[in-house]
Amino acid sequence: MIPRRIVPPVDQLVMLEDAKAHCRVDGDDSNVLMQGYIDAAMAYLDGYRGVLGRCIMAQDWEIDLACAGRHRLPLPDAISASARDAAGDPVAVELHHDARGSSVTIAGPATVSFKAALPEELLPSLRVAALLLIGHWFENREAVSERSMASLPMSVDALIAPIRWYAP
Hints:
The protein is of the alpha+beta class. The protein has 2 domains: 14-53 and 120-160, Hypothetical protein yqbg (Orthogonal Bundle); 59-116, no CATH class. 27% of the residues lie in helices and 24% in strands. The strands form 2 sheets. The protein has a 4-stranded antiparallel sheet, with no helix packed on it. Helix 2 (31-45) packs across helix 3 (123-139) and helix 3 runs antiparallel to helix 4 (154-160). The longest helix is centred in the last third of the chain and has 17 residues, at 123-139. It is elongated and about 55 Å long.
């Protein structure tokens, strides 16, 4: 059950000006490079394939479920859910939350659409982690060199460890 992202996040975790300030970049010459690092940090952290295993900013996903019953969603922190059958007719759906994440109960086979986002109180830690990643990549641009062989900052792991979600 691999989810499909239908609507990407509209809001950004890190703004370009914040990343430039963190890296002490003046002017606009590095805007494209910095935006690339911002996008890379989000791709590394966010969504089903990100290291967090969860959505950071609000975004819409869908999955196909072949039978009625209760099903664990592949991403935690679901905010809302709806379901439609193969003909496009609504299917009754109920959203549940527990310590293992989010799940839905559906009345029959359906495509379940759901919106997910990280709780607001966890965003400050992730902003700092993303800025640390961006700064690390900005300072270590080359693929192979003695300087670029440094691993990611330990503080990134420390910041994301309590937020990372592992599918049960």
